[in-house]
Amino acid sequence: MELSKELLDVFGHPESGMRIVHIAGTNGKGTTAAYSAGILKAAGYRVGVYTSPHLVDVRERIAVDGQMIGEADFVRITKRVLSAQTGDRPTMSDVLFVAALLFFKERGCDFAILETGLGGRLDSTAAIEAVPEVTAIPKIGLDHTAILGSTIEAIAAEKAGIIKAGTKVVTGKMADAAEAVIRQRAGELSVPVIPAGEDICRRVEDAYLKQSYLYENVCTAAAVTNELIASEEKWQAAVREAIRTVKTPGRLELLSEQPFLLFDGAHNPQGARALADTLSKWFSDEKFLFVIACFRRPDYEALLASFVPLAACVYPADIMHERNLGAEAIGAYYRGQRTEVADGLLGLVPEPTDGGSGQAVERSEAEATDKGASPAAFRSARDALLAAKRRAIKTGEKIIACGSLHLYAQLAGDI
To answer: Are 241 and 272 in a shared domain?
Structure first.
């Protein structure tokens, strides 16, 4: 955060003059940011959004009115930030955050919606001098415990660290212990706390959305924007338009209908439970083909456990990341739960002549062994997805890809 402060000082605090919405939380930040931006845009405002992480392209982190920054502007502005003289070399987060604010200023944004990365109190976005009109904290759970603390209260305190005197705090549905910490911090600064409760949710009408975990986040976004749009009629119309038009890549995103392929970035136990609950509501009594990859984390079994009752078969996958848990460990867990696990020895590779059509041929067990494959471990996330697709085409079963947002980028070329 200190380097971000230095950079903002160098550039004269470009956030000044814009109305700020600052968002922190364990889950739901990205969706709350997307729908808040969509509602404000539908109400006629120009809205900049800074978010993280990105799915495929780093430029996704900086967007105005739903369009990510162009390549030329991205190169120009990041070079400008990198050329600034500071005491230490800034991190990627410092550079991208300050670049985002400079870009929003150039584009004449009325609002800047700023999503924190990990934590809140020490995040780059906390370096702003401007007081946010609204500070939103959608949900809090146990995640990144080695850095943020091992209790709900400790993590809530880190998230509540972004609250400034003069703001309003909007909270989503969360544990009483977390809400108590937020209310204590708000009380110390004499700022109001506005829960996104039943009153606001009753005014967000969408029967399909109500069956998904996204609904709570949309309600939070509705509560945020209700504090920013004076006209009730204008606000309600904007909410309806946002529900119709806003897309949330990587969150309950339908990537294909034939075969059915849904991606969700659920990467912690809370997110996994929310995804499992949504699937149960949308598709009662169905079982699914799960393509799963995740990070190595102390509670990974709790993440994977949510999908046991819903799994017809699991296709364990690897992601190219130093914290990759590994397909073998995922497969071993599910075999221990007596869940069917697809065998990577009988994985799929693309036909040399298929021209990228996604067709595939079986690889024999002997051939796979010769090439060093391990039992029940696919060579790549791509192979795992292709194997799931082939079964789904035959059986009509639905495919769910989940466990990490990093999986999205590795599957993007095969959808």
So the answer is: no
pLDDT band at 2 (very low <50, low <70, confident <90, very high): confident
The 10s digit of each residue's pLDDT in 147-187 is 565 688 888 998 999 999 999 999 998 889 999 999 999 99
Residues 220 and 275 in one domain: no
Residues 215 and 278 in one domain: no
Number of domains in the chain: 2
Nearest C-alpha neighbor of 204 from the set 171, 237, 168: 237
DSSP string for 187-239: HHTT--EEE--HHHHTT---HHHHTSTHHHHHHHHHHHHHTT---HHHHHHHH
Is the CB of residue 278 less than 8 Å from the CB of residue 212? yes
Look up residue 297 and give its two tokens. 């984390």
Assign residue 326 a region (left: φ > 0; alpha: ψ between -120 and 50; beta: otherwise): left
> Which helix (H) or strand (E) is 158 found in, with range?
helix 152-160
Chain segment 220-231, per-residue pLDDT in tens:
999 999 999 999
Q: Can you tell me the distance from the alpha carbon of 115 to that of 126, in angstroms, rounded to the nearest whole number?
A: 10
Q: Which is it for the CA torsion 323, 329, 334, 336, positive or negative?
A: negative
Bridge partners (DSSP) listed for residue 252: none
pLDDT 10s digits, 373-401:
344 578 789 999 999 999 999 999 999 99
Residues present in the chain in total:
415
H or E element that contains 411: helix 406-411
CA separation, residue 333 to residues 235, 307, 324, 326, 330 (Å): 47, 12, 15, 11, 5
CA distance 284 to 130: 47
**Residue after which a domain boundary falls, among 181, 216, 245:** 245
The residue segments making up the domain with residue 16 are 2-245
Q: Alpha-carbon distance 43 to 264, whole Å?
A: 29
Give the CA count within 13 Å in the CB-facing half-sphere of 81.
28
Does the pTM of the predicted model rise above 0.85?
yes
Residues forming a β-bridge with 63 = 49, 68
Strands 111-115 and 360-362: unpaired
Q: Answer whether 263's CB lies under 8 Å from 411's CB.
A: yes
Q: What is the pLDDT of residues 238-272, one digit of tens each?
A: 999 999 999 999 999 999 999 999 999 998 898 99
